[in-house]
Amino acid sequence: MTVKKDQMSISNSEPRTTDAPVKEHSTALRAGSIGVLGILFFVLSAQAPLTGIVGASPLAAALGNGAGAPGAYLIVGIVIVIFAVGFVAMSRKIQANGAFYAYVAAAFGRKTGAGAAWLALLAYNTVQAAMYGLYGSAFSGLLASIGLQVPWWLLALATMAGVQVLGSLNIELGARVLALLVGLEVAILLLFGFTVLFSGGGPEGISVAASFSPEAIGAGAPGVAIMFAVASMFGFESTAIYSAEAKDPHRTVARATYLSVGVISIFFAFISWMLVSYYGPSQVMGAAGAALESGDATSFVIGPLVELFGPWAGVVAGILLVTSLLAGIIAFHNGINRYLHSLALQGSMPAVLARTNRHRAPAVAAWIQSAAAVVLVLPFAILALDPVLTLFSWFSGLAVAALLVLYMLCSVAVVSFFRRERAGAQLWQTRIAPVLATVLLGWVLFLVVSNFTALIGGSAETATALLAVVPVVFLAGVLVESVIERRSHATAARPVLSRP
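^ thats the sequence. predicted structure below, dont judge the formating
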């Protein structure tokens, strides 16, 4: 296969040298350092299973389709799997740790690719900032329960420093830390799920049809439930971001992508189904609504844990909610670093961002990412805004909208790329699945935009302003890349004057 030079993402390997002096700064990541399970833990951490269940399930049940909410997770899982078919096909042809940038650029050129890259950076940075808001609030509340009063923003800033240190170390260490944190939060949720399953459910028993039949899924406001299911699936595409460090990129990325989508969709569907079974299909919507009205939506999930296992489960769940958010923050920090690193290698960001340290981690990019987190979070602290109702809610919604646009753009790019590069192309992978994914994602995006005010919990004016950021950022990326290209061409065309 041949790809035009201006459309292909360049390699992340060290430049080949002969007798030239060794470069002072390395730009290579640690190749072959992470396998399928390591990438899987990065993805699961970004999706923060406990946070997704505790945060999204009461909203999906109360505002969406009640007992049919578990079915929404399966529908979204199917949509994402269809999208992943084309995504994986591209990952086998183009290996780069800036996945969306590389794939869109290979199909439509560097300018459109840069617009996609800026959208990806917008999505990942805002969702990480949103996590800092919920993390700071949850951590502050946890400390308050033992008599310590610490502002949420101070905890967030202190954590940014710790994440910066961890992000500058080797990626194997980060994967191990995330494996531990994700394992603990998944364990307590599975303990709850299997306890309810093997005990025969709650007052109405266990019913598959009550949650997974077409009638159940279509009840109430299914679009709202699907919208929150999409938010819970956030981050699976980060598998391709680690291709430069994967042990076998051709197989690792594909396996990690399908495995992460399958695991997270089935996991969320199962746990939310067991919540429905615990309360009863006819009562779950009322229970979720009561939890929201109480001001403590977490009681919808933590309440059953305490009732089944005792007070210790509530304490452990509160701690794991904090560590779940911390795992997500670390995962997005690593993903953003590698995106910046890739863009710097392409020449679409300052070259200094491509530098790696002795651990082969993108250390300079890590500092930029941490600085971006401070810039996004600090205004909410200065203005004394509620970190959950504003920072978490607003930026989560913005990130979901931006990422859905990226998914659609990537699906179209798959069709365009393989129509030109026919070598090894299969009809299902390169035509049917990407077109179907584009249509389905367009439908989901319509649901998100239509229900965006409910998603962010803010005013219509706030919703409009946040949605407007998506096209503005995309166009900004295109314009900046245009300026970079013009300067590069001007420099290349400038005559070189030799000394007499």
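Residues 453 and 461 are 9 Å apart (CA to CA).
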